[in-house]
Write a structure and sequence with these properties.
about 0% strand, about 85% helix, 2 helices, rod-shaped, about 60 residues, mainly alpha
Length: about 60
């Protein structure tokens, strides 16, 4: 009886840990995406020669 309860509790803990890990991976993917977009925006702003104050705009980003 005790062993089945312990096994059930361990399985529930493992499932909870797996769900938490999936959420962390999802958050990391979203963070990486936003960082990529931000880097691309800064690169584009610095690449536009006719834009006055591009250095200042890039620093603000």
């Amino acid at each position: 009886m005790f062993i089945t309860e312990l096994r059930t509790q361990i399985e529930q803990e493992m499932m909870g840990a797996a769900e938490a890990l999936d959420q962390r991976r999802k958050d990391a993917r979203m963070s990486n995406f936003f960082m990529l977009v931000l880097s691309a925006a800064i690169t584009i702003v610095l690449g536009i020669k006719e834009l006055p104050g591009a250095d200042t705009i890039a620093v603000v980003y």
